[in-house]
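User: I'll paste a sequence; please echo it back and then give the predicted structure.

Assistant: Echoing your sequence first, then the prediction.
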Amino acid sequence: MQKIKYIINNIDSTFKVARKFMLPYIGIRYIIGNYLYGHLFENEADGFRKLRKQDNLLTIDVGGNDGLFSRFLTSFISDSIVHIFEPVLLHSAKLNKLKSNNNQFFVHALACGAKKDEGFIHVPYITLLSKKLYLSAYSTISDRETDNFAELNHFASSFYFNNKIKIATQKINIRPLDSYSLAPDILKIDVEGLEELVVLGALQTINNSKPVIYVEQPSNTINDIMGEMGYKKYIFESTTQTFKEVQENKDKIYNYYYIYDTSVFHEDAFK
């Protein structure tokens, strides 16, 4: 299984190539998301397997999409609570059916941001035989309507034939995470370039609870905020199965950990 995982999910090989082609990408994500999420999720997230405590945790999944991260995490974490924030309504039915290892899931059909607001979320899709195939992992929030997805999300240009991408636009509500008075152990943020706004709306939550934070492509502003709060920034190296402290984002590494207290992980998790 580890060999299969390397072949399929290693960013530098097969999975990166698949992401150049929309149909293979959609197919692979569907298979992993529905059947193999406990084994074939992104390598960078395996750092959570090193947590000392793997039950009675509270996780906040901001940008939950179709629930892939939450399903991965709860494949080895039990008796815990997961709050999923995902404004794309086409995922609502699926998210509300999530069950695993006696965990409880609470789904919030809205986006997180720096303040209470409204906006639009743009969900890219392609049409095949009159059927819409959504690339919802690339859904992007803005304050206006548009029909040019490349303007909103630079990752769109990574697909071949990206001129075939169309957009379904939905009006959404935006709320700061601090308005929920949650005390998370884990905070995951993946919102296609708006991670900084989520952090700004969660400063009190982060300061009070000091969760392990897992964020995609953090900005320099996020680095500064986390540093001022006493956090250190890490990547998780799949080859050594250990965390490595870093200062800046690295090429070909998409997801980073901010850890306040390393003792929540096993000692062998750090170099």
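Residues 117-173 form one domain. Residues 1-9 have pLDDT under 50 and may be disordered.
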